[in-house]
């Protein structure tokens, strides 16, 4: 199949995303104001607590089994690589551009976390439905594609709150500490003379008296406490876990992923909830019905949130270009190398749709949850809207081009 034919196939899903996003942007304008600030907040809460967990549970429970999970074992590794490589590239971008401290956590989040949720759930089934799709029978393709997209969404949700959130939180806390250090330094310089005088007076009180034992005798009398290896390890683990917010780690999407895996993998639970003869099939149908609202609502929220980027400023064009280069040039190029190498060494099967999904995970725009994390950390909120606006605007062209290239490579 030629490049132009594949380009048209790749363009259709992106056009669907653009149209729904444009509707969200229109509804968020002041003139219509159906998705104003308060409405977006309530709709975002519905998506976060109800719609998104529902679509994760329903898709995982229906499409993921123990056999398929064994077959798709490389996907969690692949998604983790996108996060790790993106973080390293973000660190390099920060060093090159000397980004302000309050924007560093935002840059890390935008480069590390891709939109592994609603975009894949739109793009992959839409590609399968196209007449000229290179992925074979549309029904088989749609079933497999939903499994790949659902697993990708679940893994992405877990990694965002278990990896990206703590990293962004550490970066934001570092910036706060540096600001406090600067204030303390000014305060110390003002009181330096007084402190020096106090030090001279205090030194006399620290000198040993004639009746007191010498420092060597005192050290002999007092045993130094010995710190064992286990105590050091415990202290190290306590320090690491101290930076993890377990309340955020077990977000609704994470819990939904766990429930979906259990229902899909454990055969007795699957027979109870999934299938035409399942006694509790009404429960699954209800959850699936709620999940159907997730994709349009998330896409509408993306459009309404992008409107804020038109009204905000304060981000260096070099930073925006750097994030775009990482997400749409460097990461997808590395993704081709990684997936092809994994296929060469037998780590992934010969399924062309699976390989396409793995490559596409490297070419996605930043996750919208990065904006949510920025709001939670109260750092770079307005700048996040600007970065999201430009990255999603470029994604319309980038996703189409990379989808065409990926299909040429795997077809």
Automatic annotation (TrEMBL):
Keywords: Auxin signaling pathway, Endoplasmic reticulum, Membrane, Transmembrane, Transmembrane helix, Transport. Coiled coil: none annotated. It comes from the Eukaryota. The keyword Endoplasmic reticulum applies. The keyword DNA repair does not apply. Pfam families: Mem_trans. GO terms for cellular component: endoplasmic reticulum membrane. InterPro entries: Mem_transp_PIN-like, PILS1/3/4/5/7. Its main location: endoplasmic reticulum. It is found in: Endoplasmic reticulum membrane. One of its GO terms (biological process) is auxin-activated signaling pathway. The chain crosses the membrane at residues 6-30, 42-61, 73-94, 106-127, 147-168, 249-270, 282-306, 318-339, 389-410. It is a multi-pass membrane protein. Belongs to the auxin efflux carrier (TC 2.A.69.2) family. Involved in cellular auxin homeostasis by regulating auxin metabolism. Regulates intracellular auxin accumulation at the endoplasmic reticulum and thus auxin availability for nuclear auxin signaling. This is Putative transporter C5D6.04. It comes from Morella rubra (Chinese bayberry). The lineage of its organism: Eukaryota, Viridiplantae, Streptophyta, Embryophyta, Tracheophyta.
């Amino acid at each position: 199949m030629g490049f132009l034919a594949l380009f048209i196939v790749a363009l259709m899903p992106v056009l669907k995303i653009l149209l729904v996003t444009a509707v969200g942007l229109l509804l968020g304008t002041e003139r219509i104001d159906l998705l104003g600030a308060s409405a977006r907040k309530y709709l975002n809460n519905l998506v976060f607590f109800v719609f998104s967990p529902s679509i994760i549970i329903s898709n995982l429970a229906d499409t993921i089994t123990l056999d398929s999970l064994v077959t798709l074992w490389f996907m969690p590794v692949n998604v983790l690589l996108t996060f790790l490589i993106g973080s390293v590239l973000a660190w390099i971008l920060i060093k090159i551009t000397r980004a302000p401290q309050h924007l560093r956590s935002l840059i890390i989040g935008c480069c590390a976390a891709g939109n592994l949720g609603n975009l894949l759930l739109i793009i992959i089934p839409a590609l399968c439905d196209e007449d000229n799709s290179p992925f074979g029978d549309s029904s088989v393709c749609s079933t497999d594609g939903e499994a790949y997209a659902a697993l990708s969404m679940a893994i992405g949700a877990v990694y965002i709150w278990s990896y990206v959130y703590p990293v962004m939180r550490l970066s934001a806390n570092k910036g706060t500490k540096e600001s406090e250090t600067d204030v303390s330094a000014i305060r110390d310089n003002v009181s330096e003379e007084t402190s020096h005088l106090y030090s001279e007076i205090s030194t006399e009180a620290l000198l040993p008296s004639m009746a007191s034992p010498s420092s060597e005798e005192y050290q002999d009398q007092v045993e130094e406490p010995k710190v064992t290896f286990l105590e050091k390890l415990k202290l190290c683990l306590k320090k690491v876990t101290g930076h993890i917010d377990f309340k955020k780690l077990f977000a609704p999407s994470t819990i939904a992923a766990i429930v979906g895996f259990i229902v899909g993998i454990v055969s007795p639970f699957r027979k109870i909830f999934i299938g035409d003869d399942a006694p509790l099939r009404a429960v699954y149908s209800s959850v699936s019905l709620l999940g159907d609202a997730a994709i349009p609502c998330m896409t509408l929220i993306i459009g309404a949130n992008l409107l804020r980027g038109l009204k905000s400023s304060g981000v260096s064009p070099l930073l925006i270009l750097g994030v775009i280069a990482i997400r749409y040039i460097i990461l997808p190029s590395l993704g081709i190398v990684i997936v092809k190498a994994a296929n060469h060494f037998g780590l992934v099967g010969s399924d062309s749709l699976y390989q396409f999904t793995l490559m596409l995970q490297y070419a996605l725009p930043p996750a919208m949850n990065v904006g949510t994390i920025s709001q939670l950390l109260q750092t770079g909120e307005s700048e996040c809207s600007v970065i999201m606006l430009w990255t999603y605007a470029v994604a319309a062209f980038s996703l189409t081009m990379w989808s065409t290239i990926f299909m040429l490579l795997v077809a």
